Amino acid sequence: MTDLAAVKAALRTQAVETPSWAYGNSGTRFKVFAQPGIPRSPREKLADAAKVHEFTGVAPTVALHIPWDAVEDYAALAGFAEKQGVRLGAVNSNTFQDDDYRLGSICHPDARVRRKAVDHLLACVDIMDATGSRDLKLWFADGTNYPGQDDIHARQDRLAEGLAEVYARLGDGQRMLLEYKFFEPAFYTTDVPDWGTAYAHCLKLGPKAQVVVDTGHHAPGTNIEFIVATLLREGRLGGFDFNSRFYADDDLMVGAADPFQLFRIMYEVVRGGGFGSEVAFMLDQCHNIEAKIPAIIRSVMNVQEATAKALLVDREALAAAQASGDVLGANAVLMDAYNTDVRPLLREVREEMGLDGDPIAAYARSGWAERIVAERVGGEQAGWGA
């Protein structure tokens, strides 16, 4: 039987990191739709993120994206975040928006461009030192579009060399989280296309290098929970970028496309000891047509619901069914947990934490949405590239 008190205690300790860029304007390759009240600075992004944490109680950190969140004084930015009730989280690098990176960044055939990319990554570690951030999160758009465009083997050599230099710069308690993506924007070869490539590089680098699983970065039909279980077993799962996909890297709200998949992933996290560990649970989403803050609150709630269901799995009954070869019985144990309506349980957890049981309704009543629309007039709204 599942200990409900233990489940509630675990849920109170959950932490979901929200991304600064999700509070800005974002969209598709075709259009970015501006919304009123969008932050115009990193500080205004942090103020919005603080509201998400205020109403959910489980979003205490905010990831930065450099140079989108560049400021002159990062220690001061960290101090501002703490005054808002949140902390600065992972530092995300950007080696995909400069013209120099047309043929790649860290894997580029030109040593000058590679030097520029590595220097940017090293600067991101400097920012981590100033902010107290633990994680450097790396995603590379590097790859090729045509057969013969570049030497695949040589590009992996360049990748390994650049990563090694950055890894050597990490301080005590700092980690490198390497993300993968099987295609886009490169269409013939991608230099870090899958978890195996990311794992191989991390294994060679050392224990401070971990793999990030973006739930939208997989081919249709990929068993993501198997990847999660394997990386946990090997001690190399550094974190998640949570979002949903219907077709490709859609970056929709986590749990929107396949909540059952999110539950299966979270069960493997719980079963593999990843819950309450160093595994980072981060959002990475593109809120194109929906209101930003409510969408992020809803995303955090979706992660909570999947986690609650995963914690409710009767693991003793599941193990017994598995050991006896009871195929249907084992599946039924999982389905019983998944089909449980955990919303009343999560309402109780929030109320016990001194929060409103309904974060979405509480935010709507707070007046913050109306306030930022009235106050954030003029200036340049934050968005992709800002």
Write structural notes for this entry:
There is one protein chain. The radius of gyration is 21 Å and the shape is globular. The mean pLDDT is 96. Strands 1-2-3-4-6-8-9-10 form an eight-stranded parallel β-sheet. Strands 5-7 form a two-stranded antiparallel ribbon. 45% of the residues lie in helices and 11% in strands. β3 (87-92), α4 (111-131) and β4 form a beta-alpha-beta unit. The longest helix is centred in the first third of the chain and has 21 residues, at 111-131. The protein is an alpha/beta fold. The termini are far apart.
Question: Tally the helices: what do you get?
Answer: 14
Tell me how many strands there are: 10
Low-confidence stretches: none
The assigned structural class equals alpha/beta
What does the largest sheet look like? 8 strands, parallel
Indicate the mean pLDDT. 96
Helix content: 40-55%
**N-to-C CA distance:** 51 Å
H/E element string? HEHEHEHEEHEEHEHEHEHHHHHH
Q: Give the oligomeric state.
A: single chain
Name the overall outline: globular
Q: Radius of gyration, rounded?
A: 21 Å
Strand content: 5-15%
Arrangement of strands in the largest sheet: 1-2-3-4-6-8-9-10
